[in-house]
Amino acid sequence: MLKKWIGSVTALMLVSIVALTGCGTSGTNGGSQTTASAPKAADTVSKEAPKDTPSASKKLTVYAALNEDDIVQIQKKFKEDTGIEIEYLRLSGAGEASTRIQAEKASPKADVFVGGSVEFYEPLASQGLLEKYSSPNAKELDAQFNDPKGFWQGWYMGVLGIVLNKDRFTKEFEPKGIKEPKTWDDLLDPAYKGLFITSNPATAGGGYIFVADQLFRLGEEKGWDYLKKLNDNVHHYTPAAGDGINLTATGEFVAGMSWSHDIVKSAKQGYPIKVIVPEQTAFEIGGAGIVKGGANTENAKKFIDWLLTKPVGEMNTKLSNRYSVRKDVAPPEGMIKIEDVKLVKYDRDKASQMKADVVKKFTEMTGKK
User: Fold this and answer.
1) What is the pTM of this model?
2) I want to staple 167 with a disulfide (CB 3.0 to 4.6 A). Which of 49, 62, 267, 272 is the partner?
């Protein structure tokens, strides 16, 4: 009996040693020690694609240059439609998001940059910080909304406008015989000194497009002369384009410059403001791009595809009052039809190329950052 018991124990120990040796071998990197069964195990892993592999990730990190309620709704709807959870960081403007992506280039933290004008995406693409991707849904859009190089994607449009506080204008300006502004030039009236607010072109997409608008509208020399004169009336330059709406809506300023869709949105909430879309205004193409080196690139591609669908275009138009880049999405309620807007001849490629020089000159001229 004792011999039989010893024999059984010995057999069990041999089996255990073989099993442990097999586990140790499969866990090493040395190819000479890999057993013949290892490739089969690898094949099984690739076919089953467990949830902890990158391809099965259910996360997406987004840097958003959008209003808080916009990105919250996008987060909610994207999770409903795809099962992918968005973790977002809302930044004050496209300039801040761009700066952050540049600072993190050695170790990218974001997968997607969304919101803000495409002028802020071009420099990132030229620095190799965006992943090249052309969505199949982009074929349904006009060519101007698609980057021919494939590094950014347009998904909405925004038109620059003047926000006017109706109460303050009626009380303070009308008695002086001053009429509501209809053009950008009307804002040079000395009556607006210290009562007008706009955004910083270094940090806000709207701020930069406004500056570029004047340079395209009036030409280089006269455009800079206009900006210098307007600076005398500007109280200060805000980090984001939307800030001016809030400050004008609460009566701190009589007028400001911002995006028309955001002005209308605030007006619908009951603030005593109105939007004026002046002649020779400019429009932005709101962008989205995939950050190169992000942890969830495949999910980022799904996000770009999702943004370009009709239901998402309709959702965004209803929520934000922005124009959709899709022709089958109706214009936002309360907004002038895009075909009725008198746009400046805006050279988007040139605007992107001259951005660094323009921002530098503007900062030096105004002495404000």
Assistant:
1) 0.70
2) 272
